[in-house]
Amino acid sequence: MNVTQDLSFLSLITNAHLIVQLIMALLFGISLTSWTYIFRKMYAVRAARRQTIEFEKTFWAGGNLHALHQNAGKDRANSGALARIFEAGMGEFIKGKASYGSRDALDVGAVLDGARRAMRAAFQREMDALESHLAFLASVGSVSPYIGLLGTVWGIMNAFRGLANVQQATLAAVAPGIAEALIATAIGLFAAIPAVVAYNRFSHDIDRLAIRFESFVEEFSNILQRQSR
């Protein structure tokens, strides 16, 4: 056991046992990856919310649906999730009507069902994209404290093994080793707490977006039904 009276954060890490240092390095890597996903998800959710609001304003302004469909299809990557859901439904509706040739042969129910299924499929794709990496944040929040605790237990075991060769065990002798071990738990909590907070926040925001998407699908289906009569 390396006994040192320098209890600075850097010194505690460099003087820790090799196994504890490896656990710390793992937690640092997990934390860095977690923060990367947090910032990426923060940008994605904010962009999705902004694009949804913009598309809703344009849609409910009462413009021509065919023109709106063409505009949404021109730049699908940047049009937003709701615009892509609309584009999928409107595109399937147009194809369905064209396949029947004449209005007398039009099966309104089949056309509307096809448009609704297309919007549901697009909805699932958009939700899958928005929810990507959330499972990783949840895993980091639940597992990181235990990984840090493993490093702490190992470090304390190593510290007490080192005291076996010391004739008189004093607080000054055991404190550095225990402090080195506790750093692992601190790093584990540092990785876990932001991940848990971000997961809960993003889950709430994505659920609210999902409600808006589902409401739009139902409302747009009613509009298509009225136009088919």
From TrEMBL:
- GO annotation, biological process: bacteriocin transport; cell division; protein import
Describe the location of the MotA/TolQ/ExbB proton channel domain by residue ranges.
85-214
Subcellular localization:
Cell inner membrane; Cell membrane
- List GO terms (cellular component aspect): plasma membrane
- Primary residence: membrane
For this UniProt record, give its keywords in alphabetical order, as a comma-separated list.
Answer: Cell cycle, Cell division, Cell inner membrane, Cell membrane, Membrane, Transmembrane, Transmembrane helix
- A Pfam family this chain is assigned to: MotA_ExbB
Looking at the UniProt entry, the stretches that span the membrane are: 18-39, 134-157, 177-199
Protein's membrane topology: Multi-pass membrane protein
Superkingdom per UniProt: Bacteria
Task: Please state which protein family the record places this protein in.
Answer: Belongs to the ExbB/TolQ family.
Please give the subunit comment from the record.
The Tol-Pal system is composed of five core proteins: the inner membrane proteins TolA, TolQ and TolR, the periplasmic protein TolB and the outer membrane protein Pal. They form a network linking the inner and outer membranes and the peptidoglycan layer.
Q: Sum up the protein's function in the record's words.
A: Part of the Tol-Pal system, which plays a role in outer membrane invagination during cell division and is important for maintaining outer membrane integrity.
Q: What is this protein called?
A: Tol-Pal system protein TolQ
Natural source organism: Rugamonas fusca
